[in-house]
Write a structure and sequence with these properties.
275 residues; alpha+beta; Arylamine N-acetyltransferase fold; five-stranded antiparallel beta sheet
Length: 275
């Protein structure tokens, strides 16, 4: 059993950041409200990785960046902050390790660098994940194999195949793997190690591509992948725009994702990636 230590987070500031009105309790209704508020307010993004800034996972740094600076982050930051928030509220929550499989065939071994959360409420286990890009969950899904579950966005399920669990999303015509997991916890040292590789290795996808995503309350999602800005509803592409230059990128980040603080000149390293 991993020894856990709860570190205080400014819950008042967090609630204001995500627009959460009610006082959260350690129950399913509050978990749903928190996740919806989080994924529609705090964008998934890797700007700091591309700009060569360190990604820090200590509680003070997570709170400063995602809450007070109103920036976003990727799984170690997003789910790291959510872990601290849920612990402080009183949830029974466990950090879990996974391998992202979006768009990757099962024969390819991906790095074990995804953090998600398992939350136990009244004896029932739920999967919570606000940090998997354009597939981030706006509500928890029950940790039950084979159950097809609606969410405010895509339908989800968990299957057990080839000796491991797969979190899947319905892509319109078929189920697609989001990530796989073996069911083991991801302690702080493993999160630090995975975060270091993910944010610094030239082989890491976050060093090779610009990725920004934000879920919307209406069931759609905004996204940026390299030089494309998209608006989607599930697998349906509602609109797509080619990003012309860093000035255009700056205004998209501001208008659709609420991201400020970097000038167009600073965003040069984030533009035109992916070939």
């Amino acid at each position: 059993m991993i020894r856990r230590m709860t570190v205080g987070i400014d819950l008042v500031a967090y609630k204001e950041r995500v627009g959460l009105g009610a006082e959260p309790q350690p129950d399913l209704a509050s978990l749903r409200a928190i996740m919806m508020a989080h994924v529609t307010s705090v964008p998934f993004e890797n700007l700091d990785v591309l700009l060569g800034r360190p990604i820090l996972l200590d509680p003070a740094s997570l709170e400063h960046k995602l809450v007070h600076r109103r920036h976003g982050g990727y799984c170690f930051e997003q789910n790291g902050l959510l872990l601290l928030v849920l612990q402080q509220i009183g949830f029974d929550v466990t950090p879990m390790a996974g391998r992202v499989r979006v768009g990757v065939p099962r024969g390819v071994v991906t790095p074990r660098t995804h953090l998600f959360l398992k939350v136990r409420i009244d004896g029932v286990e739920w999967l919570a994940d606000v940090g998997v890009g354009g597939m981030s969950l706006a509500s928890p899904i029950r940790f039950e194999v084979g159950m097809e579950q609606p969410t405010p966005h895509e339908q989800r399920r968990i299957v057990y195949e080839e000796g491991r669990h797969y979190h899947q999303a319905w892509l319109g015509e078929e189920w697609g793997d989001v990530y796989e997991f073996a069911g083991d916890e991801m302690p702080e040292i493993d999160r630090e190690t995975g975060n270091w590789w993910t944010s610094t290795s030239p082989k890491a996808k976050f060093k090779q591509n610009l990725m920004v995503a934000l879920a919307r309350p209406d069931g759609t999602r905004y996204g940026i992948f390299n030089d494309r800005f998209t608006h989607r509803r599930g697998p349906e592409l509602l609109s797509e725009v080619v990003i012309a230059d860093t000035e255009h990128l700056y205004h998209l980040l501001l208008q659709y994702f609420g991201l400020t603080g970097d000038s167009p000149d600073q965003l040069v390293a984030c533009f035109g990636l992916g070939g």
